[in-house]
Design a protein that fits this description.
6-stranded antiparallel sheet, elongated, 379 residues, alpha+beta, 2 domains
C-alpha cells in the first residue's frame, strides 16, 4: 500500500482526495499526491469562503458550473438574494436562475402582527412546513456560530416549551448539531431597515432564520412557537409581489480565508505542474494557508485582456522575475484576479512565463509555455 507525505502538515497518509484545481470551480479530475485527507477537509472550508460565499459564487452559477446534485435547478448563488416590495415595504428571500428568472424561496415572515407563508413552488412550501414541524418536535435549537476548527464548540440557543411558556438559553456543544435552525444576521444591508425576521429554506434545504440581530431572531422564534402551539393556518400576505424589478445581492464572507484559499490553489498547481518546486522553501505560504498567521502580501488585479482572453476559463500565470516568481490567479475570465510574489522561488528562466488554463466548461486543465501562449493569439 502506497504511503504519501503531506506537503502542508508533513503527516503520512494513504488516499489522495485533494483536487489540483478545485472541482467546485470546474477543475479537471486530477488529484494531488502530497495533500492528506485532513488538510483537504480543512481546505474545503477555506474554499467555501471563496466560491460558496463570496462573489465568485455568483460568477460560478452564472457561468453554469454544474451542481453535483442531479436534476437540481442551477440557481445563481449568493449569500443573500432579496427582492423588495416597495408598496408594502416587505423584503422577500428569492432565487434567481436561468436567464435571470425570479422565484420566491419558501419562507415564513412576520408582517405586522401576523405570520405569513410565501413561496413560488408548492412542493417547497410543503417541505418548509414539514421541516419546521420536525424542528419544533425534535430540536428547538438555533445555531449562532459554527466552530472555526474541529475542536471548537458550536454556539446555539436552546428553546424550551413548558406550560405554554417559552424560555431560551445560550449554550455551547462540542458535538455536531443537526437539523437546527441556522441564524444569518443581516444588519448592514441597504434593506436591513425593512427586514422583518423570517424562517426560510436555502438552496441546500437548510432551515435559516434571517434577522437584523440575535435578539430579534430569539424574539421572533418565541412568538412563532407560541403562535403555533395549537393548530393554525398560515396564509400568504399577497399573491402579487410589487417589487421594483431589482434583485439585491449580498455577500457575507471572510476575505482572509478567501485569500488563503487562493494561495492554496496557487501552491497546489505550482507543486503539480512544476514538481521540482517542492524543493523550495514555502514555509511562509504554508503557514498562511494553514492558519492565516504568516503575513503574505497579495494584490488584487484588474482583468488582463491578453492573459484572460480565453472564454470559459480560469488562468494561472507563472512569471519569473530574477529569483522571484510572480503567480497570478484569475477566475472566470478575470472576474476575480489575485497575485502573489514568491521570493527565492526560481522555476523558469528569467522573464520566462507559463500559463495554466482551466476550461471550466470542459473540466480540463492545460499548461502552456511561452510559445504556445503567443501562438494562441494567431488562431
Amino acid at each position: 500500500m502506497n504511503k504519501y507525505k503531506c506537503f502542508y502538515c508533513s503527516e503520512n497518509y494513504i488516499k489522495n482526495t485533494e483536487h489540483v484545481f478545485p472541482d467546485g470551480l470546474g477543475g479537471q479530475n486530477i488529484y494531488m499526491s502530497c495533500v492528506c485527507e485532513k488538510c483537504n477537509h480543512d481546505f474545503s472550508k477555506l474554499e467555501g469562503e471563496l466560491y460558496r460565499k463570496g462573489i465568485a459564487n455568483l460568477m460560478r452559477s452564472v457561468a453554469g458550473i454544474s451542481s453535483k446534485k442531479k436534476h437540481s435547478r442551477n440557481y445563481f448563488k449568493a449569500q443573500t438574494l432579496l427582492s423588495f416590495d416597495e408598496l408594502n415595504k416587505i423584503v422577500y428571500e428569492v432565487n434567481q436562475y436561468d436567464d435571470f428568472k425570479i422565484e420566491l424561496k419558501p419562507q415564513i415572515i412576520e408582517i405586522g402582527l401576523k405570520f405569513h407563508i410565501e413561496g413560488t413552488l408548492k412542493e417547497d412550501i410543503y417541505q418548509l412546513t414539514d421541516k419546521v414541524k420536525k424542528w419544533k418536535k425534535n430540536n428547538l435549537k438555533m445555531i449562532l456560530k459554527f466552530p472555526e476548527k474541529d475542536d471548537d464548540c458550536t454556539s446555539y440557543v436552546q428553546f424550551q416549551i413548558k406550560e405554554n411558556l417559552i424560555s431560551s438559553e445560550t449554550l455551547k456543544s462540542s458535538s455536531r448539531i443537526n437539523k437546527a435552525v441556522i441564524l444569518d444576521v443581516l444588519d448592514s444591508h441597504e434593506l436591513s431597515p425593512y427586514l422583518k425576521p423570517r424562517i426560510f429554506l436555502d438552496n441546500e434545504k437548510n432551515l435559516i432564520i434571517r434577522a437584523i440581530s440575535v435578539v430579534d431572531a430569539v424574539r421572533f422564534l418565541k412568538k412563532f412557537l407560541i403562535f403555533t402551539s395549537r393548530p393554525v393556518n398560515i396564509n400568504s400576505y399577497s399573491k402579487i409581489v410589487n417589487d421594483n424589478g431589482i434583485v439585491y445581492v449580498g455577500f457575507n464572507f471572510d476575505l482572509l480565508k478567501a485569500e488563503r484559499a487562493m494561495a492554496k490553489i496557487i501552491l497546489n498547481c505550482l507543486l503539480h505542474y512544476f514538481p521540482n518546486s517542492i524543493n523550495f522553501n514555502f514555509d511562509k505560504f504554508k503557514s498562511f494557508v494553514k492558519n492565516g498567521e504568516t503575513h503574505v502580501i497579495g494584490e488584487i488585479e484588474r482583468k488582463d485582456d491578453l492573459i484572460d482572453s480565453l472564454e470559459d476559463t480560469h488562468n494561472i500565470f507563472f512569471h519569473q522575475y530574477g529569483d522571484n516568481l510572480k503567480v497570478r490567479l484569475s477566475l472566470f475570465n478575470g472576474g476575480v484576479c489575485y497575485s502573489f510574489i514568491m521570493e527565492d522561488v526560481n522555476i523558469l528562466d528569467n522573464m520566462d512565463y507559463k500559463r495554466l488554463i482551466i476550461d471550466f466548461k470542459k473540466k480540463e486543465n492545460k499548461i502552456q509555455d511561452k510559445n504556445a501562449f503567443l501562438m494562441s493569439f494567431n488562431k
